[in-house]
Amino acid sequence: MQKLIVKGKKRLSGSIIISGSKNATLPILAATLLTDKTTILKNIPLVQDVYTMVKLLKFIGLNIVISKRLNTLKITNKKKLKTIAPYNLLKTMRAGVLVLGPLLARYKKAKVSLPGGCAIGVRPVNLHLFALEKLGAKIKIKNGYIHASATQGLTGNTINFPAISVGATENAILAAVSARGKTIISNCAIEPEIQDMIVFLKKMGCIINFIGKRKILIIGTKNFRSLNHEIIFDRIELGTYLIAAALVGKKVKFVKIKSKFIETEIKLLKKMGVKMKLEKNKIIIFESGKLKSANVKTEPYPGFPTDLQAQIMVLMLKASGKSKITENIFENRFMHVPELRRMGAKIVTKNNVAFISGPINLSGAEVMATDLRASVSLVLAALIAENKTVINRIYHLDRGYENLEKKLKKCKAIISRV
What we know:
By secondary structure, the protein is an alpha/beta fold. It folds into two domains: 201 residues, Enolpyruvate transferase domain (UDP-n-acetylglucosamine1-carboxyvinyl-transferase, Chain), CATH 3.65.10.10; 209 residues, Enolpyruvate transferase domain (UDP-n-acetylglucosamine1-carboxyvinyl-transferase, Chain). The protein has 14 helices and 25 strands. Helix 4 runs parallel beside helix 6 and helix 5 runs parallel beside helix 6.
């Protein structure tokens, strides 16, 4: 089992190139099941979740060639595909359920395992199934699998989500783009990753447009074309490294980004006293003085992302006074707290609220990652801790961060994998 060893208190300086977005890549890969035309995807992050999705799509029948040197994927599809997605390929990654919509749309049936992924809450697929049933699918759950069928094909309809869900919005769009007639999706998620998937689908030939802030109109079509698409940058990776630079940076530069996608995060960092300079496709973080406490609530985009909650908690440990985080998205997302406490953090949790006292000096310890974002919060804590920290179960980290040690080492961090 691999571990990360981090020696803390080393100031960071240099520049970090942000990778392509994992959370944009996964639904776009699922979308390639809709077409038999060639697709080329650029700026792919070479992380474990992407490899798992590629493995799943290859099992279904797509021909996929990865260029690790260029971070590109070429996808071709000339044969009839399987309509099953087995448990062994979905048990580590929730996004595998996104093949349900496109397989159902194209082949009128699909059998997809209930998904796995991080242990951060129940995350049921009920909203995915609600949307597909609105489009005419008949659905049963049996022996841990979703059995979906639409013998006459899917038909456009109005889908008004009772709650905002990123995955359910993606599955609904992927099913509706080739359903007969018109679909209107209301109360949908509008994350930049969904916006990127919509750009991709339009290039492919889909007729899809926003007709309100959280309202999408889709006219079904099966006339698809070949395309090239460059995946957007990973805003969660950027947010993570911005926090690392705010914690121990002298001067750290971030390139290949668009700051408009992380306006909420930038506003919060500035409010806490982080010194930064924004340029067109670049952010520079400078050494900050005293940091101020803050109150944060996680919310759907454009609110503060749940995927940065664990990381901002570490920054709050360096801020003066009491900070508060209310976790509104997942019910079990404070699993990093006991590990941070092992390093000396003063954090109290009550239901979905965490109270953080700072500033506090952390000391290195042996800790264990419990999920993807929790694991990276332990890396951030290790960067500011006295002495050495050993982080176990880092396979979680590899699911979503490309070349983490290389990027931090390039900025003079003392970090190694054993």
